[in-house]
Amino acid sequence: MLQIIRERLHQKYRTLDYPRVQPTLPERYPGRPEIHAVACGDCRACADACPTGAIRLLSPERPGPGGVERGPALDMGRCLFCGACARACTQGGIRFGGDHHLATFAREDLILTAVPRPLTPPRQSGRLFGRSLKLRQVSAAGCNACEADINVLGTLVYDLGKFGIDMVASPRHADGIVLTGPVSLNMREAVLATLAAVPQPRLVVAVGSCAISGGIFRDSPECCNGAGDWLPVDVFVPGCPPHPWSILDGLLRARTDTAAWDA
C-alpha cells in the first residue's frame, strides 16, 4: 500500500484540464496549415510535391472559394500533413502552424486559402444529445493509425469519459458513428448497416484524411474515397492521423455546435 501511495505521489495528476487548459504540443507537430497570398506565376513546386493532390494554385482565371484570390489553396481533407508542400514553396505561401483545432462541420470548410471566409454551421444540433454522447467506432479498411489515436483518448491524459463521451460496442446503444479508413468496397455495406442501426437523431464523425476523401488510396478501384460523397457527415476531423487532441476537439464540437476555428 505504501508503494502505491508513493507511486501516486510521484506520478501526480496527469489528466489535462482540457479545454480550459490547452495542450503543449511538440515543435515538429504539423498543425493547421497557414496560407499566404503569393504570386506563384508558373511555379507548381508545392502542388507537384503533394502526394494526394491536396493543393491547387489560384489565379484570377481560377478563383478560389472566396472569389478572386491568388496563391495556393490547400484541401485539409486530402492533406497528409507531411509538410512536403511547405518545404517545396520558396515564397512561403504555405506553412504548418501548431494549432490542433482542425474540425469543421462542412467539407468545403476544409479548403484553406489566404482569404478567410465564414464557416458553415452544423447540419444538425449536437445539443440534442445533452451531456452524454455514445459513439460506435467503425474501422473501414483503416491502417490502424487513426484507430490507435481514438483508442488513446480513453487513457488518463485525455480521459474521454469525463466529457460524457464513450465508445460503445453496439450501434443500437450509440448516438452516432466515428468512421476511420478509406472505406473499401467490402466495408461499404457494413458501414451503411452500422449507421442504419443507430437510432435517430444520429451523428457521423469522419476522422482522418482517408475517411474524408480516401487519402492516399483515393480513386483506387477498391476504395469508396471515404465517406464525404455518400454519407451525411456531421463533423470532419482531418489529419493522417489526426492528433488525439484534434480528435477530442472535434468530438466536443459535435456536441457544442461551435466551429473549431471559432474556439
List the helices and strands and how they pair.
Blueprint: H1 2-11, E1 33-35, H2 45-49, E2 55-58, E3 71-75, H3 84-88, E4 94-96, E5 111-112, E6 133-139, H4 145-151, E7 165-167, E8 176-180, H5 185-197, E9 203-207, H6 209-213, E10 235-237, H7 244-256
What can you see in these coordinates?
- This protein is α/β, with parallel strands linked by helices and 263 residues long.
- It has 7 helices and 10 strands.
- It has helices at 2-11, 45-49, 84-88, 145-151, 185-197, 209-213, 244-256, and strands at 33-35, 55-58, 71-75, 94-96, 111-112, 133-139, 165-167, 176-180, 203-207, 235-237.
- Strands 7-6-8-9-10 form a 5-stranded parallel β-sheet, sandwiched between helices. A 3-stranded antiparallel β-sheet has the order 2-3-5, with no helix packed on it. Strands 1-4 form a two-stranded antiparallel sheet.
- Strand 6, helix 4 (145-151) and strand 7 form a beta-alpha-beta unit.
- The longest helix has 13 residues, at 185-197.
- It is globular and about 70 Å long.
- One of its GO terms (molecular function) is 4 iron, 4 sulfur cluster binding.
- Belongs to the complex I 20 kDa subunit family.
- InterPro entries: 4Fe4S_Fe-S-bd, 4Fe4S_Fe_S_CS, Complex_I_20kDa-like, NADH_UbQ_OxRdtase-like_20kDa.
Which labels suit this protein?
single chain; 263 residues; alpha/beta; five-stranded parallel beta sheet; three-stranded antiparallel beta sheet; 7 helices; 10 strands; 22% helix; globular; metal-binding; 4Fe-4S
